[in-house]
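Continuing from the previous page...

OK, I double-checked the sequence for DUF1643 domain-containing protein against my notes and this is the correct one:
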Amino acid sequence: MKPFIPAEELKKNYGVFGHFYSVELASKEIVECRSVLELVSKPRIPKDHSELSLLSPDAVFVMMNPGSSRPLEVVNNRICAKDIHKLTISLVPTKPDTTQYQVMRLMHFREWRHVRVLNLSDVRSSKSPEFIKLFQRLEKDEALDSHSIFSDARTVELAIKLPKKRTTPLVLAWGMSEKLNPLIERCLGRLPPKSRIKGLLEQGTANKYRHPLPSLQKDQRVWLENMVRHFEE
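Thanks. Re-ran it with the corrected sequence; updated structure tokens here:
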């Protein structure tokens, strides 16, 4: 059994940086978003954090949505929905959430120094049912699909953030919800052919990959053990 490294120890070894922005809808409603997250071993953090977006990570994760992750600095990136694809990346220090600690644990055992996290949707919401209702409303009522980096409008941005080398693993870990299917299908349609896809595919499904943070800690340990083993196969 691999040791389950506590969060306090992980925070000493890794820095977390994200790009946060706010989308103003036609109705004037504001939706809080995050487009990318960079987890980096502290010796590798550049003085200009935004340089991380230009580096080639050791792995790229794709998960559901940004959850409860939040910036540690004031961010004033408000943009109209139709202009999301024009955003310039500006990374700021970020308070990690429990999911990101799981990724750090895998980084430790794989000896990765840099992992990039993308999501099926940029919409920040810590509760999955609320997130699902919100993204469904955005797509139906607002005709807005660019909350997802896998939308047609953000093709150029996606190409920059995906692995540059076919040997770089693309770890899928968005969970089991059937309600995510429209976002999952959009994502899978955008991944480059012959990508090195990794992840714990749920038995009996074609596209449901286990999330790093099941509710019970014993199951979190199982996810970590299985992922370490998965990379050794």
